[in-house]
Automatic annotation (TrEMBL):
It comes from the Bacteria. InterPro entries: DNA_brk_join_enz, Integrase-like_cat_sf, Integrase_catalytic, Integrase_DNA-bd_sf, Integrase_DNA_bind_dom, Integrase_recombinase_N, Phage_Integrase. PROSITE patterns: TYR_RECOMBINASE. Residues 227-407 form the Tyr recombinase domain. This is Integrase.
Length: 409
């Protein structure tokens, strides 16, 4: 049977299923119900304007008796002021649902990603992953609550943690693009991320190979190729002695694997890593000695034709009999390669080349062209830059080349 007492931790502990209900002696209508399972819920019973209702405050365990009491006081006050607390709760739930629907995570997957895929399917996943990984703590945040202040706080933390300024800018710009699109689609009225100014980054880094480094890299690649062939020779000899099936003789082909051809192609065409990985044999014209970078694989979204010099032509001509896919360089299941970082870093280490990335092979290509007098617009076209400013950043002349030019005066 129902009992009456002040609802406290002590009185709740004493409550038994047979009691069914505990009515508070201080706040009118405030009571706790206990079910046969032992679960307890807090309620506020009320009558107003000839209507009665039972407002559920919450469950014991999620709320303490004192917390439930405070909510009961607040709701009693609202009732006294003529507020319909049930409608108010419904409005709160609808607002919560609206905010949840506009959380960054849902917006990215349900709205932004499909739009990106329609424009350029190749880059859509990368952009979404950039925002999701960079702003993991923002994913449950409604778009309307993503403010310049919060993003600047995030940025300050990343800079203190030694994240590169260019990387920070990339994350922030990716988020800005997503937020601006949400405004255009009327998902939010506006955003203030324009207040987050781009961090100044020194863009003078231009790493290319010195003549000695280039010679060291090429000789190291050849030495690596010889080691692989020697290892295959020894393995096959081992198999022959034991009457085991032998593996293909690597001596019968120019390259043991894809690493050397990829590096040589990058050095002699200036292609990006992703463009090389997506390159198909149908993109190669051996008659005109050219290759085509398809628009869908180019960062600029525009196709371009690159003439093949003797080295690049030799590489492709000798690699073609080895390749077993529509893709020039393929991995498992004849699908495009996705990474060569481990092998490339090992070669750099053996060649004693420091602070060099695969992308720097592109710098190397562009710098050699400029140092040999090729005009910047031609370099721009070969690199696939939409803006000549990018070419200037990638293709500065070497300091020693400038010195030689000045010495001519």
């Amino acid at each position: 049977m129902a009992i009456k007492a002040k609802i406290t931790t002590s009185s709740i502990k004493k409550l038994k299923p047979s009691d069914k209900r505990l009515t508070d002696t201080e706040i009118r209508g405030f009571h706790a119900r206990i079910h046969a399972s032992g679960n307890i819920h807090y309620y506020l019973y009320y009558k107003t304007h000839g209507r009665e209702g039972n407002f559920k405050i919450g469950s014991h365990g999620q709320l303490t008796p004192s917390e439930a009491r405070e909510i009961a006081k607040v709701k009693s006050g609202e009732l006294a002021r003529g507020i319909d607390i049930q409608k108010s709760r419904l409005d709160e739930r609808q607002e919560t649902e609206r905010q949840r629907a506009n959380q960054l995570c849902k917006y990215l997957v349900e709205h932004y990603k499909p739009w990106l895929e329609a424009r350029n399917a190749k880059t859509a996943d990368r952009i979404i992953q950039t925002i999701q990984s960079g702003f993991a703590d923002f994913l449950k945040t409604p778009l309307s609550e993503i403010t310049a202040r919060k993003v600047e706080q995030w940025r300050n933390q990343k800079v203190k943690a030694q994240m590169g300024k260019a990387t920070v800018n990339h994350y922030v710009n990716s988020l800005k693009g997503a937020m601006s699109r949400a405004v255009e689609w009327d998902l939010i009225p506006s955003h203030d991320l324009k207040k987050v100014k781009t961090l100044k980054v020194e863009s003078t880094r231009l790493r290319y190979l010195s003549p000695d480094e280039e010679e060291s890299l090429l000789s190291t690649l050849r030495e690596r190729d010889e080691r692989l062939k020697t290892a295959r020779d020894q393995a096959n000899e081992f198999r022959r002695v034991r009457n085991y099936p032998t593996q293909p003789d690597l001596r019968e082909q120019e390259y043991s694997d894809h690493l050397e051809p990829i590096v040589l192609l990058a050095m002699n065409t200036g292609m990006r890593r992703g463009e090389i990985f997506q390159l198909k044999w149908s993109n190669i014209d051996f008659y005109s000695k050219t290759l085509t970078v398809e628009a869908g694989n180019a960062k600029s979204g525009k196709s371009r034709i690159i003439p093949l010099n003797d080295t690049a032509f030799y590489v492709l001509e000798n690699w073609k009999p080895i390749s077993q896919s529509q893709y020039v360089f393929h991995g498992k299941d004849k699908e495009p390669l996705t990474d060569i970082k481990k092998g490339f870093l090992k070669v750099l280490e053996e060649a004693d080349i420091e602070e060099f990335r695969f992308h720097d092979l592109r710098h190397h290509f562009a710098s050699k062209l400029v140092m040999r007098g090729v005009d910047l617009n031609t370099v721009r076209e070969l690199l696939g830059h939409a803006d000549i400013k990018m070419t200037l950043r990638y293709a500065h002349l070497a300091p020693e080349h400038k010195a030689r030019a000045v010495s001519l005066l």
